[in-house]
Amino acid sequence: MQQLLCPSCHHSIDAKNINVAANIAKCTDRNTIFKISELIVDIKFPENPEPPAGSKIMFNKENDNRYSFLLSN
Ligand SMILES: [Zn+2]
After folding, report:
1. CA dihedral sign, ordered 22, 24, 25, 27
2. 33 Cα: distance to centroid of ligand 1 (angstroms)
3. How far is Cα 10 from Cα 44, in angstroms, rounded to an integer?
4. Which residues of 37-46 are buried (b: 16+ CB within 10 A; e: fewer)?
5. Confidence band, pLDDT 50/70/90 cuts, at residue 43
6. Cα(71) to centroid of ligand 1, in Å?
7. pTM higher than 0.85, yes or no?
8. Spacing, Cα 47 to ligand 1 middle (Å)
9. Per residue in 10-34, pLDDT tens?
């Protein structure tokens, strides 16, 4: 689930108040106009994420002790 939040008051912004073509969004709480790029994107992940059944997570060690991972079927 993904929500766009007002950067000023952190209220969620309804889709009808977002104009993608004009790159603006309106917070109805204070009638404030923002650029879409200024909004806070709030993505909620499940608390115990599990890969879809039948897939594997492959970890790849990269330089500087960093890891990347791939989901494969
Ligand atoms: Zn607001």
Report:
1. negative
2. 9
3. 15
4. eebeeeeeee
5. confident
6. 38
7. no
8. 28
9. 999 998 999 989 999 999 988 999 9
Rg (CA), the chain: 18
CA of 14 to the centre of ligand 1 (A): 11
- Cα–Cα distance for residue pair 23/28, rounded to 1 Å: 16
Q: How far is the CA of 2 from the centre of ligand 1 (A)?
A: 17
Residue 39 Cα to ligand 1 middle (Å): 10
Residue 63's alpha-carbon distances to 66, 71, 72, in angstroms, are: 6, 20, 22
How far apart are the CA of 7 and the centre of ligand 1, in A? 7
